[in-house]
Design brief:
globular; 299 residues; 17 strands; Nitrilase/N-carbamoyl-D-aminoacid amidohydrolase; 25% helix; 6-stranded mixed sheet
């Protein structure tokens, strides 16, 4: 039996998104190919990369952006993955049935097969992020997927704020947890709270890496998108990054430009960290029953 590699180069595609889905797919393909040329064997795209972030408004006509799985995006990217012999994580606005849509990600193996799918579990509803209008909460649970490059987990954007999601993915055996993301500033808030917001986002994910002794990878879009006329839009803050199992940031993109990051990971790092900080060993799984309650304090 061939021993699995202990070192793996991964690629992060931080891209800006135009109003034209075909143009976005073409741009994503070019950036994937660039990552592969730099040696990446596993590449992740940002959340909902085929369009601008349409959840800035509630508009029934925008359901036309959705597609089936398999569908046009997966048909194109499965062929690309097979050609380049790489694993791809490809977010998709999924049309499951008439009137039933999900914010999803497809895991494509290096032979071009679809080896897994994740549907976003936590759906936000905030000013400019009206996702509950568009997306049904995921029903596939928290998973890890066996690929040619190892066992990986995928969560999506708002999921990144929930320690339960990271923990449940980690205990499925994920060596790396990927977070395809679309997060940014309301321009009017940026000067007052922007840096604190971005630092909180970065810090909570580094915390997931430390608490679970696993690599965490966030892949965000960048650029200003005014999808709702008459508003300031959203300025996506980029900052795609990789944290190792001790929370050390190994690589990080800028806030305001497209970038392809390729970074080699030492997959033995989890073993080293977990031996020193054995959180999984010391979990009191007999005492966590109330975690399934909404709130256990005063009524």
């Amino acid at each position: 039996m061939t021993q699995a590699p202990t070192r793996l180069k991964i690629g992060l595609v931080q891209m800006s998104c135009s109003p034209q889905p075909a143009r976005n797919l073409k741009r994503a393909i070019a950036m994937i190919e660039d990552a592969a040329k730099k040696g990446a064997k596993l590449v992740c795209l940002p959340e909902l990369f085929r369009s601008q972030y349409f959840c800035q408004r509630e508009d029934a006509s925008l359901f036309d952006l959705a597609e089936t799985i398999p569908g046009p995006t997966t048909d194109t990217l499965t062929k690309l993955a097979k050609k380049l012999k790489i694993v791809l994580i490809a977010p998709v606005f999924e049309k499951r049935a008439a009137g039933l849509y999900h914010n999803s990600a497809v895991i494509i193996d290096a032979d071009g097969s679809i080896c897994g799918q994740y549907r976003k579990m936590h759906i936000p509803d905030d000013p400019g992020y009206y996702e509950k209008y568009y997306f049904t909460p995921g029903d596939l649970g928290f998973q890890a997927f066996d690929t040619a490059t190892g066992r990986v987990g995928v969560l999506i954007c708002w999921d990144q704020w929930f320690p339960e999601a990271a923990r449940l993915t980690a205990i499925q055996g994920a060596e790396i947890i990927f977070y395809p993301t679309a997060i940014g500033w309301h321009p009017r808030e940026k000067s007052q709270a922007g840096e604190q917001q971005r630092d909180a986002w970065r810090t909570v994910q580094r915390g997931h890496a430390i608490a679970n002794g696993t690599f965490v990878v966030a892949v965000n879009r960048t650029g200003l998108e005014v999808f709702n006329p008459g508003t300031d839009g959203l300025e996506f803050w980029g900052t795609s990054f990789i944290a190792d199992p001790f929370g050390v940031v190994l690589a990080e993109a800028g806030t305001d430009r497209e970038e392809v990051i390729v970074q080699e990971l030492d997959l033995n790092r989890s073993e080293q960290v977990r031996r020193g900080w054995p959180f999984l060993r010391d979990r009191r799984i007999d005492a966590y029953g109330e975690i399934t309650s909404r709130f256990s304090g005063s009524k």
